[in-house]
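Hello forum,

I keep getting stuck at the same step: I have a sequence, I want structure tokens, and every attempt I make locally crashes halfway through. Rather than fight my setup again tonight, could one of you with a working pipeline run this one for me? It's a single chain of 137 residues.
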Amino acid sequence: MKVDNKVHHSAEQWEALAKNPDHGPVCMINLFKFKAKAEYPDGRDSQLTGIEAYQIYSNKTREMVEEAGGKILHTSLIEGLVVGEVEELWDVAAIVEYPSIEVFMRMVDSDEWKENTIHKEAGLEGQLNIFSKIPQT
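Reply #2:
Ran it on my machine without issues. Output:
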């Protein structure tokens, strides 16, 4: 299995997500790897660590998630592996629930979210964002 951390989704990934049937809640499972020092794309001088820059993004994003009817289900530091191997561990895991795919995509496509991503880009080395659904019974 090849693992390739990214900061943003690709056009192909976004298109595939949009084609999913929009039935009920979805969860995004996030694995984050932070830069040691924040590096802003606009070149601004910053004394922030990567996680501190990401926290600015995260605080605003939390508000947006809650306004959209979503919720942060879990956030924790990653301590180690019990099964499997990777070259390098991620730093943090988080699970966020959204009412639907449409709600998630609308939030990520919003100007407000896009303006806030400068802090995400400054702080993240990369991430995996895994889309999951609660099975319908």
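The mean pLDDT is 88. If your local run keeps crashing, start a new thread with the error log.
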